[in-house]
Amino acid sequence: CGVFGVIGVPEAANFVALGLHALQHRGQEAGGIVSYDAGTGFNSQRRFGYVRDNFTKQSLMETLPGELSIGHVRYSTSGGKAPVLRDVQPFFGEFSMGGAAIAHNGNITNAVALRRELIERGSIFQSNSDTECIIHLMARSMQRTIPERMEDALRRVEGAFSIVAMTRTKLIGVRDPLGVRPLVLGQLGGGYVLSSETCALDIIGAKYVREIEPGELVMITAQGVESHFPFRRQKPRFCIFEHVYFSRPDSIIGSRSVYETRRQIGVELAKESPVDADLVCPVPDSGVPAAIGYSQESGIPYAMGIIRNQYMGRTFIEPTDQIRNMGVRLKLNVNRALIQGKRVILVDDSVVRGTTSRKIREMILDAGAAEVHFRIASPPTAWPCFYGVDTPQREKLLAATMSEEEMREHLAVDSLKFISLDGLYRAVGETSGRDDSSPQYCDACFSGEYPVKPSDQIEQGFEL
Ligand code: 5GP
Ligand code: SF4
Ligand code: MG
């Protein structure tokens, strides 16, 4: 998901809408905005679909007045369940000392246990969302102020959270102690901005100030930023997959350009797994920077062998079985004239179920390619993510049940190579690779080493 907040700027919700639009890649299912205005109090609007289709209407934006506003774009990780509006964030709660709204990116790994305990003690849940636990924990806290209640609540929460929240007078930002998901601070005129990624600061012309640190809670008023560290300090474990796929290539993470990291992954891939071929082609859009790096390092020409239809929204793949079975063809097409008779290296960011790769191989051979070589910009995805990235159950992950050679046979390609975990660490700037005794990143979906015990999942039978 994506989170964004603005304080100290007139019509703050308009900036939040623009910020969310720039974070749309982090969640396309739904979006919501809350604002506060002394005259009308807290106001909230939540909608299914893209930001641009909802939060551009003047009649809607007029209902969100004020100089303080937060928003959320949602990407469902509650696997398979039909989406319902009451699960769309931000969530709002009314306390004795005023209201608070909260938007969360990540996933709480002990939410099932917390929810059970809270319901037993009388809490009334309105949604299925893990995030709502935070509101109820805050309601039960004995602390005086809302920020103190939030600290109290978050000390009981396990897992990954980057949070943007607001009271009547403050914008609040928090990152979990490991800093799994990103969150940055910016400045806009006399006010401040919190955002999942820097690309959303650019769209509103805000100045990048710094990252919120892992384990940090910032309380922001128009006067300034106050910083707290309410959790026990731990060594950070940022999500390495943000670098590979999730973040936008024009964002900066930890002073590194995401684009440059992805290009470097391609360079590493070309060094680790060279192959003689005529063309290097990306699977658009996620494979583009790595394909550029692979081409530059190998000297094999880069070309657009697959063209993406830019108008293909995710929600379009609904209507009939007949259309659904066409799958990836709705989004991607082979550039036949280029591919015919060529030995092609295809670069993609990841193989999850393997359905995309299989369909693409089929299309590219149909178009007359002489050979197809897959190069993947991440190590084999053999474990599910429990920290906010939607991956299927372990059994459905190709790499959970097959060796690399078995995957190559299954995909029926001439060769298949993944970047090594060490190669990936080098590409993100860790020159001596992964520190196996104390890894610098979360890489659980590749290594199976979960930095936070997925306790709800273990209770439901998941085996480490
Ligand atoms: P597969 O077809 O192997 O199941 O999925 C691989 C494709 O899904 C890749 O092209 C990759 O770009 C995309 N992908 C990787 N991670 C995610 C994710 O977290 N969410 C979505 N929607 N797509 C992803
Ligand atoms: Fe990121 Fe993978 Fe860790 Fe999930 S398991 S937080 S996707 S590195
Ligand atoms: Mg892709």
Automatic annotation (TrEMBL):
Pathway: Purine metabolism; IMP biosynthesis via de novo pathway; N(1)-(5-phospho-D-ribosyl)glycinamide from 5-phospho-alpha-D-ribose 1-diphosphate: step 1/2. [4Fe-4S] cluster binds at C239, C385, C442, C445. Mg(2+) binds at S286, D348, D349. Pfam families: GATase_6 (PF13522). Its EC number is 2.4.2.14. Residues 1-223 form the Glutamine amidotransferase type-2 domain. InterPro entries: GATase_2_dom (IPR017932), Ntn_hydrolases_N (IPR029055), PRTase-like (IPR029057), PRTase_dom (IPR000836), PurF (IPR005854), PurF_N (IPR035584). It catalyses: 5-phospho-beta-D-ribosylamine + L-glutamate + diphosphate = 5-phospho-alpha-D-ribose 1-diphosphate + L-glutamine + H2O. Keywords: 4Fe-4S, Glutamine amidotransferase, Glycosyltransferase, Iron, Iron-sulfur, Magnesium, Metal-binding, Purine biosynthesis, Transferase. GO terms for biological process: 'de novo' IMP biosynthetic process; purine nucleobase biosynthetic process. GO terms for molecular function: 4 iron, 4 sulfur cluster binding; amidophosphoribosyltransferase activity; magnesium ion binding. Binds 1 [4Fe-4S] cluster per subunit. Its cofactor is [4Fe-4S] cluster; Mg(2+). The active site is at C1 (nucleophile). Catalyzes the formation of phosphoribosylamine from phosphoribosylpyrophosphate (PRPP) and glutamine. In the C-terminal section; belongs to the purine/pyrimidine phosphoribosyltransferase family. This is Amidophosphoribosyltransferase. The lineage of its organism: Bacteria, Pseudomonadati, Pseudomonadota, Alphaproteobacteria, Rhodobacterales. The gene is purF.
